[in-house]
Amino acid sequence: MNKIMLIYASKHGSSKEYTDMIGNELNIKAVDIDEFDSVKKEDFDTIIFVSGVYASKINKIDKIKNVFNNFKNIIICPVGFSEYNENTKKNIESNFTEEELNKIKIFYLRGAFDYSKLSFMEKMMMNMMKKMLKKDPGEHKEMLDAFDKPISFVSKDNIKDLTTYVKEI
Ligand SMILES: Cc1cc2nc3c(=O)[nH]c(=O)nc-3n(C[C@H](O)[C@H](O)[C@H](O)COP(=O)(O)O)c2cc1C
């Protein structure tokens, strides 16, 4: 196995939960993205970045993009509430250029939603979204229900494909 750097950015905890699971499984220590600048990148050849998805954007992805060239293997784990489908895939991929997509491997992990934990600004955003979703609830029922009752899809089963892949590179 390569020398791996495990980095996370987590606003409300689910990316951190996944990071702890990944760290335990691969026996590596995780580093918060806010301490990333002080880590010696040249000591590693693989980076795993676990981070929440907000309005289709992977939180703090730009910090990792700045150092793409330092690593042989770049693994991105976006953590979002949406179920994984073609639309989710497209939204996640829109965070990257074609050239970047050729360099990285993406493992989407399903996260959690707890309205009570959100900041004032996030609550405002989500209230606007709720109004829109209510007009066409269809496939958004899970999201609408989550406003009244916190829900988490975080599970150790979800990291299996990622850890199997990492152990083989
Ligand atoms: C303001 C806001 C916007 C969000 N936008 C998305 C989104 O575009 N797609 C998605 O799948 N999940 C979205 N989510 C859900 C988060 O990605 C989910 O809660 C995730 O578990 C957050 O991870 P973290 O707590 O580690 O930051 C959003 C949540 C909030 C509060």
TrEMBL record:
Flavodoxin domain: residues covered: 5-136
Biological-process GO terms, alphabetical: heme biosynthetic process
GO MF annotations, alphabetized: FMN binding; menaquinone-dependent protoporphyrinogen oxidase activity
Pfam families: Flavodoxin_5
Source species, domain of life: Bacteria
N-terminal signal peptide: none
Gene3D superfamilies for the chain: 3.40.50.360
InterPro entries with a match to the protein in the record: Flavodoxin_dom (IPR026816), Flavoprotein-like_sf (IPR029039), Protoporphyrinogen_IX_DH (IPR052200)
SUPFAM superfamilies according to UniProt: Flavoproteins
The name this protein goes by in its record: Flavodoxin domain-containing protein
